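We store sequence, tokenised fold; for instance:
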Amino acid sequence: MSQTEPKNSNKIAIISVAVLALILLLLYMQGSFVSKVSPGINPLPGDANAQKNDTAVVEKKQVDNLLTWPGTVRSRTVANIAPRMTARIIEIKVNAGDKVKKGAVIARLDERDVKAQENAALAALAGANAQANRAKADEQRTRSLYSKEAATRENFDAVVARAKEAQAGVNQAASTVIEIRSHLADTLLLAPFDGTVVKRLKEPGDMGLPGVPVVTLQTSQGLRLEADVPSTCAGRYSIGMDVTVRIDTLGLTTRAQIDEISPEVDPQTRTQLIKIGLPAIEGLQPGYFGWLEQACGQHEALLIPASAVHHIGQLEVVKVLSEGRELMRHIRTAKAFGEQIEVISGLHAGETVIILSQQAQ
């Protein structure tokens, strides 16, 4: 006999012992070594632990369908900073993400054309003033002559009319100067409030057009979550209603109130816009992603205490008390409802599960 044959025999024996031990362990976990006796007559070996631990009955109840709708944190106050006139953009002083103070210069437009108009208007005003001064002097001289009966009434009335016309010309020229200077102020785009630049939409050299934004500015105060909710569920909401909001970026779940519900239903997505006012939260910024949690409808569920579920690796198991014996049962769970958890397979309504004490766990 060769020396390899005893080695092979030893390997086979070791494998056989290991397989036998595994089979015995599985049989033990299923309660196969505990004798079956009518319940309640004599205590069984498995009853010693069952008496130390609580039990619970698998319940069938109607529970809410907890759904979540994605949303975005936005500011209540958003401003699109746009020119009031057509002019080329000379300079943009901010970038996306910059924080600015109220009155800070956001961008500067080409002012050369407006400056030329201002110079022309000032020259016209000077001419109108000179003409008005001559007319006023003529009026005073003619008034003196008229008082001495050295000028006719017709001549006097004509001189007074020319003086009034000249003064009207001065007033019109002054108004033109004021208007042009207001356009000159419009060549500077200023921040209307303290805030953060969200978008920069133009670059120096681009043509600035009335109403076309150069940057978008928003405040970081008064934030709210805006979410599109299917109209079938949006009908359950009302203004002032408390809801649950989750901000994953901050690992935060909080309660908030609904501020606004859009009455219009989007014809493409069949959703309505829900706006939820958020409390002051440190670190929260516009643009963060969030979730609006909602109970929409109900379904029938099997519930057991969450403390009855034990985890063995990736498996979820419970101990079921059946005819006085403890049996290990593999289950699958779903969402938690407070201290209870929904079981979607492995148990039936009315069965009894064992809740191990903290020491036993």
Remarks:
- The chain has five helices and 20 strands.
- The CA atoms of residues 57 and 352 lie 4 Å apart.
- Confidence is low (pLDDT under 50) at residues 33-51.
- The first helix runs from residue 4 to 29.
